[in-house]
Amino acid sequence: MQASIVGPAAGAPTAAPAPLGRGVVDSIGNTPLFRLPHLAVPAGVQLLVKAEWYNPGGSVKDRAAKYIIEDALRRGLLGNGRTLIDSTSGNTGIGYAMVGAALGIPVALVMPENVSSERIQRARAYGATIMFSDPLEGSDGAIRMVRQLAADRPDAYWYANQYNNAANVRAHMETTGPEIMAQTEGRVTHFVAGLGTSGTLVGVGRYLKRVKPSSRIVAVEPADELQVIEGLKHMASAIVPGIYDPSVHNEQIAVEAEDAWQMTRWLARSEGLFVGFSSGAAVHAAVQVARSLREGVIVALLPDSGDKYLSTRLFE
Ligand code: PMP
To answer: Predicted confidence band at 17 (pLDDT cuts at 50, 70, 90)?
Structure first.
């Protein structure tokens, strides 16, 4: 069913030596699902959170990075000396940089200049090259810049294009979705996740609807284009990702940045879960869903930990 976290069982003889450097790549996925025992929800409702910061690069985006790179290697688009290039608000970049380091693929990233310094430093630690786009243009400015760079030097760069790459969605159809189904023993009724590239929501949503058509899928986004919740897009005012499929979700919940921050702080102090602000947004939305139900099993996806937001000083 699911790949084991450590690869072959301890002590088991391996048929052939694993390719050099794959170790960390094989530890992506199979993240825990937690209860929130201190959160008040109706008696018949269970609210569970998928702890994606347990991935080795620290976020849900390790899954997409792994799928995108492995797909490109299979198709001969990488592994020929070309550099993977993409725009990212940080987490996908860290995933690319980590997987690229492990598999010997050079990585270049375009990030808006205002992304938190922890993300930039972490990607650099893995050896990635970072270029900065105009902070005022947000993630869309980074998309425009990477398109230009890739068009100017097609011999040097392979544009991974996470916003339009089907492997991003497939990562969640083949790993995150099945994990949630297995971990809830098929009891999941609602899935709640934020929209960035939309890979997580579309991939998990499609899988759940296929295996359990009654599943309700809830998309979370910032209340308007001025509300910044790192990692999330306000679709109505953004460059809409090619992989986005609005027919997957049944409901959309708009979250104010202030409410996301409050919930993020509450999760650290009351549940001992030190998560990022898009996680706070997902739980804030999941609570609204929970309080509208009499029974159900809600899974909210928490993309990353609070580590990369310490420099924002929002936890003080
Ligand atoms: N939260 C954070 C912190 C992220 O970095 C991202 C990715 N941009 C998301 C949520 C959204 O994930 P996805 O790209 O799969 O929609």
So the answer is: low
Residue type, 253: I
Pairing of strands 44-51, 295-302: parallel
Please report the DSSP string for 107-169 in residue order. EEEEEETTS-HHHHHHHHHTT-EEEEE-GGGHHHHHHHHHHHHHHH-TTTEEE--TTT-HHHH
Burial of 223 (0-12, 13-18, 19+ CB in 10 A): middle
> One of 50, 59, 61, 66 is an active-site residue; which one?
61
Q: Please give the helix or strand (H or E) that residue 219 lies within, else none.
A: strand 216-222
Best of 59, 87, 169, 302 for a ligand 1 pocket test (most atoms within 8 Å of beta carbon): 59
pLDDT at 6: 36
Identify the CA nearest to 47 among candidates 289, 314, 262: 289
pTM over 0.70: yes
**How many Cβ atoms are within 10 Å of 107's Cβ, its own excluded?**
26
